[in-house]
Amino acid sequence: MDPDHLQILQRYSSCDVADALLDLGVPEGGFLPGLVMWSPRQQDGHTRIAGPVWTVEYVRVGKEKQAATDQQPLTPAGHYVDSAPSGSIIFVSCPEDTLSACWGGLVTKRAKRLGVIGTVVDGRMRDLDEARHLDYPVFARQVAVARPTDDLKVHKVNQPVIFHDGHGARTIQPGDVIVADLNGTVLLPAQLLKATIQRLKKLSDVEEVKMRLLDQGISLTEASANASTQVA
């Protein structure tokens, strides 16, 4: 993945990226609902992360999940976090009914040391004070107090995972890009990265013209019409 593209992407908010993805035909602009910023501050401040996804999937060991766990686990030797690449965003997938935390203080400390950009948890996180002390970005559905229960196991790492948003299922591929900030979390398919950046530049130019015209007291209707003609 071109690091220059990621550097450019870092300039834009999750809202900007979602608008570009909508124009490119991505449903809901790639929005991953429910995954909000808890650290370094709860949906506040200027923290923004943008980078390639490195996935971790937890499954529940038991009769209802036996089909999934019968497969050969695709996990590294040792703790998964030790294999997380620098410059990545760890995406942790948890069973929907999980009340315990699938991310906590020890993995936060190790990930920070390894140069991981941040973590997005499709589930719960804990040790919020430790993440905030380290100024480490964590996005999650909610917080919890208990560690993962004994029936929760890491089943695969750096493999496709499924995100359920209440309206359907989406596959998150390793190497896809996540952009997240106080507004929310957006998934950008890797193959659309270049096109998204091109679209972002155009949308940004249009937005800048609109803002300038609004500062002059022009109506939003007129500003929108004028901006479209002024930006080729």
From TrEMBL:
Stored Pfam families:
RraA-like
The protein's matches in InterPro entries, at most eight in alphabetical order, are given as: RraA/RraA-like (IPR005493), RraA/RraA-like_sf (IPR036704)
- Cofactor(s) required for function per UniProt: Mg(2+)
Question: Could you state a single Gene Ontology molecular function term?
Answer: oxaloacetate decarboxylase activity
Identify this protein by name.
Uncharacterized protein
Instruction: Write out the entry's keywords from A to Z.
Output: Magnesium, Metal-binding
Q: Detail which positions bind substrate.
A: 104-107, 126
Q: Which regions form coiled coils?
A: none
- State the source organism's domain of life: Eukaryota
Q: Which residues bind Mg(2+)?
A: 127
